[in-house]
Amino acid sequence: MQNCLVSGGRRAFRIELPDGRRYWSVIDENYDAVELADRFLFDLRFGRDRAESTTRVYAGELARFLAWCATSGRSLEVAAQELSRFVLLLRTTATERPGAGQGRSPGPGRINHVLAVVREFYKHSVALGAIDASVLASLYEVADDRFLPAELRPEGSGLRYRAAPRHRLRASRSAQPEAASQAEWEALLEAATCWRDRFLLVVLWFLGLRIGEALGLRRCDLHFVEHATGMGCGVEGPHLHVVHREDNPNHASAKSRNERVVPVGPIVLAYYDRYSHERLSCPQADGCDFVFVNLFHAPLGRPMSPSAFRQRLRSLSRRAGLARPVHPHMLRHATGTQMTEAGVAIDVVQALLGHGSITSTQIYVHPSAARLRQAVEAVEALSVTRNHSKTTEHVKKARTAPTKGDGDGH
Ligand SMILES: [Zn+2]
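^ thats the input. predicted complex w/ zinc ion below
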């Protein structure tokens, strides 16, 4: 067993069952599992088949909430009634966990996530019959759907009623991770001191892989040949496979369980060639099937961990003199943005990035001024070519007539 995320008497704890299956739970100061939290997390993992990493995040959020209940002596029923106080506590407490947000209070997106986990926990406990259903009235209010966007309303229906969470912070758009610019990426590439880092930067920039997906790649996932039939794969052209594996020793994992194929272009292949050569100079890496391995630091030849690369990217950002540190996700964000800028259809971007829902892809669509202009010009061109003689004549007149005051100004 392994524990982390210590949180005032309640903590997230990794549990390994006798058959080797693992999930994260919440324990108290006596190392006893907190019963309702444990049942919730167990069902999440094995009943709803969520990833171990998801239970880890949920257990961490839930431990915070239960620690607040325990230290303030609130029962779950009272805690639900006074949830605003917990929100206030979250808003004013700096994050202790190491990472980008350390030392700052969490943003609205993060707090909303904690609250969503807390609500799921309550719903589960009510379904078990462990808490009275009346507690849900403290968490949800009944609202009608007239203010929902049309696509979220059931078709042909009148007014529908739904349960809306009572506690939710307004998340600003700037909470979205920003895309790295090409200049930033090029500066990182210049600052990188080895081909492994350069190859990884190229993979993240051109293919938009999540960092966990990239560091989880095995050499057998790379089909960098024209025809992979010899490897038992029918996909034409160089490509790689993003495969979900739970047990990677470096804790790198593909988020989606659906395997996807990502085509690879000549630039990525060229950088891979250079990296392969460099990798040969580390004999310890020989027996390791992972693509990205430690070449210069202990443990040599072992798979590189996401946290090690994040740290590396921070120091590369400093070396490159960038005004802000670049996070791996900013490179993925840049890929999505560039693809939509290049006119790639959104369903294709969704497939390449491996999004389960197209709404995740839509955040990468930022229409630029140039694309807005193109759209307006396309409509103008269409109205003239449609052979509507009246439009054409009008347009001709407008273009040739001297601009004498028409009387009405605009
Ligand atoms: Zn293949």
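The radius of gyration is 27 Å.
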